[in-house]
Design a protein that fits this description.
With 228 residues, this protein is mostly helical. The protein is built from five helices and no strands. The termini are far apart. About 22% of the residues have low confidence.
């Protein structure tokens, strides 16, 4: 009887252990599914980012064509930069909200899961994504002379903050960088324009001198014919 009771107790314990194990497996699967859902969501966001970049490339190409046709003025630069600045300021709140949601979910998952490789993989993916997410809004391209200025100006903010799963870009940061980028872009345009004016002036002067030389040659030729 004693042996039968012990066997039954052992059987109950084994069943309880199996049940706990199955519950832990189910919980882990749910957490991994949540992670996979998050990764799938990030891939969708990254695709949306690529679509934005493709659209921006189209805008840049249009602006570049305008420059090549000598229709792009300093005022065009100013208007374009201010327009991009206003757009990015409007999107700053969305960036902060997105970063906060991702940070909270990653923190929650990291706290719940004891699987360091999974947490590290997810953290790395989020950090890389946020680096790209920030690049969309700070790499504002305005024309050939100005289209790479912003990414360098903002890179230090991205490097400092991605480790915390957030990119804190304030409106004041943006305005300061935008002002600097505008100054540099306008300065480059003025320099290029001055060089172009000097080149055209030199061409005009050479054309005038060539015209004078030709007229003198024709005059000498006419005088020579008269003397004959």
């Amino acid at each position: 009887m004693m042996a039968a009771d012990q066997m039954e107790m052992i059987s109950h314990r084994i069943k309880a252990m199996v049940q706990r194990h199955n519950e832990e497996v189910a919980t882990l699967k749910a957490k991994i599914k949540e992670r996979d859902d998050l990764i799938a969501h990030l891939h969708k966001v990254i695709k949306n980012r690529d679509d934005i970049i493709a659209h921006r490339d189209g805008v840049i190409k249009s602006k570049d064509n305008k420059i090549k046709s000598n229709e792009y003025t300093i005022e065009d630069f100013r208007t374009s930069i201010i327009g991009d600045q206003e757009m990015s300021v409007r999107m700053t709140d969305e960036i902060h909200a997105f970063n906060a949601r991702i940070r909270d979910r990653v923190t929650d998952l990291s706290r719940q899961m004891d699987l360091d490789p999974v947490s590290s993989e997810l953290a790395d993916l989020v950090a890389r994504h946020l680096m790209n997410q920030a690049d969309i809004h700070v790499n504002l391209s305005t024309a050939n002379e100005g289209k790479n200025l912003f990414s360098g100006l903002f890179s230090k903010y991205v490097r400092e903050d991605t480790q915390n799963f957030t990119v804190e870009i304030t409106e004041e940061d943006y305005k300061r960088c935008a002002d600097r980028a505008m100054e540099e872009a306008i300065k480059r345009v003025k320099t290029n324009r001055a060089a172009m004016i000097q080149e055209k002036t030199q061409e005009l002067q050479e054309s005038k001198e060539a015209m004078k030389a030709r007229l003198k040659a024709e005059q000498r030729e006419r005088m020579a014919k008269k003397s004959d």
